[in-house]
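Is this the right way to post structure tokens for a design question? Let me know if I should format differently. Anyway, here goes:
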């Protein structure tokens, strides 16, 4: 279980996240939706130790993440798929995937994990010897997801997986997120594409200018008039 309590984050004099609290229970898909600049990415970066918190707490299965180095967080079973993919463009596809298994020692396990990732993403298997920089945006997103899976995560934090992708590829990516959820992986999903995020989530929180303004069952929020006007163009 991930529990964020009264979290505030500042960049100098600018308060990017303002006293927010939310939970992600084991086995859930929870979405954080909101406009660009609402504080969604900052929240993920703080959870994963990339940005320091001003105040508050972030607990993951009893461990205080605000006192845990980002490298250690991966070994706790949490993987972060950042906005913009951040693949190693000059390295091959398979080399990128193997980078995700840096905490694993057993080469036979790595081989099994590669087979698992290639089963989810056949396109990556076809391109396993290509440089990651030659892949399309959708393929790079698949590679980022596959690399995260190589660390055996129990929880995945995904930041804007639909960014820059065609509607067809967005559907494909979200179909894979559903498959991961069915396999028991917990997902915290940050998305500007509110319709897709709410359609896949169990629960959701709306973040506006650093504050949580709404929360609840994702399907209820999908039909909420205020949410529809602000984020769904209805």
């Amino acid at each position: 279980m991930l529990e964020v309590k009264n979290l505030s984050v500042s960049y100098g004099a600018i308060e990017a996240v303002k006293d927010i609290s939310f939970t992600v229970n084991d086995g859930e898909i929870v979405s954080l939706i909101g406009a660009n600049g609402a504080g969604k990415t900052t929240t993920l970066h703080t959870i994963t130790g990339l940005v320091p918190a001003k105040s508050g707490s972030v607990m993951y299965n009893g461990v205080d993440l605000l006192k845990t180095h980002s490298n250690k967080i991966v070994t706790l079973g949490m993987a972060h798929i950042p906005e913009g993919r951040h693949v190693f463009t000059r390295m091959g596809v398979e080399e990128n995937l193997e980078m995700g298994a840096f905490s694993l020692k057993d080469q036979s396990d790595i081989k099994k994990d590669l087979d698992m990732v290639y089963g989810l993403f056949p396109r990556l298997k076809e391109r396993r010897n290509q440089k990651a920089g030659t892949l399309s945006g959708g393929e790079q997103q698949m590679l980022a997801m596959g690399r995260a899976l190589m660390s055996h995560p129990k929880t995945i934090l995904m930041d804007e997986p639909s960014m820059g992708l065609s509607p067809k590829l967005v559907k494909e990516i979200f179909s894979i997120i559903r498959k991961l959820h069915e396999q028991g992986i917990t997902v915290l999903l940050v998305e500007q594409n509110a319709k897709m995020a709410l359609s896949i989530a169990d629960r959701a929180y709306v973040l506006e200018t650093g504050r949580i303004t709404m929360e609840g069952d994702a399907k209820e929020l999908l039909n909420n008039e205020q949410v529809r006007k602000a984020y769904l163009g209805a």
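Format looks fine. Someone answered above. Worth noting: The chain has two domains: 2-77+153-231, 90-152. The longest helix spans residues 167-182.
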